[in-house]
Design goal:
heterodimer; A: mainly alpha; rod-shaped; B: alpha/beta; two-stranded parallel ribbon; 7 helices
Chain lengths: 221, 184
């Protein structure tokens, strides 16, 4: 018995409609996945740039802090500072200040939900990096407060301020070196991830070149 | 017996005595000025050069540069050149505000006032052209101390403060005190 022609037509049309819907869903899903991947890539690139900037800031301040620490040791040994005013005029507070480190990439990634599109290993490494950075900031803040406490600046007792500043800078330099090592690992991980996602983008390299590595050899001025 | 002029004025209220005291003070002042002029004239030439207010540009002794043109010096102080020719990083140390040598450097090298100087470095940091602004030092001693311990560092100090353990740069081939040196 032959099937009526309209039944075949309806079947074909139904199949076409279902296929069209499935195709539309697949295209939508593909676009969404692509957007998520782009968000993740942009976020990783931001992390790389920011961590490299922070790394450059640490590279910039570390020799200065080490120099100030050495100077404090010399001053303490020679008992060259006796009054708070002498401390202020000789050491100042700027030399004790920690570097200004950014965390905007992390905050943006949390706010935009970009972290949910990044793999667990990378998120975990980034979380550790920014946690250490937060801890460094907190320690620096409390350390500088302990240097500035009034008892360190009693007339005739400026040596207490010197000793306290020396201990503080020792901690700061150690933390800066640890944080720098953490940044280096995070950057290596991010570079690997970005290379996998965009093998030819070179986003990390350009940021690195801009902030923390010397330019090609130039003739001596 | 010597009596304090104020007590004499209070006790006697004598106008003539006050006038005499003023004349005497004038004579003493003139004598002091004459003595000072004689002392200045008697100073050796080297000592005079130390008090001209010249600023020396000093670097860590291992920096492989001994002469800079004024334009190159400007580029370094403006953070446009951040590495020496041996690829070591330039660490710029700048005196805290109110020091006269800072005022001179801001005026001659940066050609900026304090506000513009601050805005300049904030802008550079914001654009990520530099990692951080110049490092602050509070005295010439601190500057020289840090110069001798930070490789690649550069700063400016009064010529009279220069010590042998730092390297003084020639600017446009001139040392501080020489005619045509731009920072005096």
């Amino acid at each position: 018995m032959r099937k009526p022609a309209w039944l075949a037509e309806v079947t074909v049309q139904s199949v076409m409609i279902v296929l069209s819907i499935l195709l539309a869903l697949w295209v939508d899903q593909y676009k969404q996945r692509r957007a998520e991947q782009e968000l993740a890539a942009a976020s990783l690139s931001n992390f790389a740039k920011e961590i490299q900037q922070n790394e450059a800031r640490l590279d910039d301040i570390l020799p200065y802090h080490k120099g100030v620490r050495k100077m404090l040791t010399g001053l303490e040994a020679s008992r060259g500072i006796n009054t708070p005013l002498e401390f202020e005029n000789t050491v100042g507070l700027e030399g004790l200040r920690p570097p200004f480190l950014l965390a905007t990439a992390w905050q943006t990634a949390v706010a935009t939900g970009a972290l949910t599109h990044i793999d667990y290993e990378t998120v975990s490494a980034l979380s550790l990096t920014y946690t250490l950075q937060d801890r460094f900031r907190e320690e620096s803040r409390s350390g500088i407060q302990s240097v500035l406490q009034a008892s360190n600046f009693q007339p005739g007792h400026a040596d207490a301020a010197l000793r306290s500043a020396g201990i503080y800078l020792n901690d700061v330099v150690t933390s800066e070196e640890e944080l720098r090592a953490t940044y280096a690992q995070a950057v290596a991980l991010l570079r690997k991830k970005l290379d996998t996602m965009h093998p030819t983008s070179g986003a990390v390299d350009s940021a690195q070149r801009r902030d923390s590595t010397p330019p090609p050899q130039r003739p001596s001025p | 017996m010597h009596t304090h002029p104020t007590l004499i004025r209070a006790a006697l209220g004598a106008r003539t005595l006050t006038l005499n005291a003023s004349r005497r003070a004038g004579r003493v002042l003139a004598g002091m000025l004459l003595a000072l002029a004689t002392l200045t004239a008697a100073r050796p030439a080297g000592a005079q050069a130390k008090n001209t207010g010249a600023i020396a540009i000093v670097v860590h002794p291992e920096v492989q540069v001994s002469n800079l043109s004024f334009a190159e010096l400007r580029r370094i102080f403006l953070g446009e050149q951040q590495y020496w020719s041996d690829r070591s990083k330039v660490t710029l140390l700048v005196r805290a505000p109110t020091a006269y040598e800072r005022s001179m450097v801001l005026d001659r090298i940066y050609k900026m006032d304090e506000d513009r100087f601050r805005q300049y470095w904030i802008g550079k940091m914001f654009r990520a052209e530099v990692a951080a602004g110049p490092k602050i030092v509070y005295s010439s001693d601190m500057a020289l101390n840090l110069i001798s311990s930070i490789r690649g560092s550069i700063t400016f100090v009064p010529v009279s403060a220069v010590t042998p353990d730092v390297k003084v740069l020639r600017i446009d081939g001139k040392l501080p005190g020489e005619a045509g040196y731009p920072l005096q």
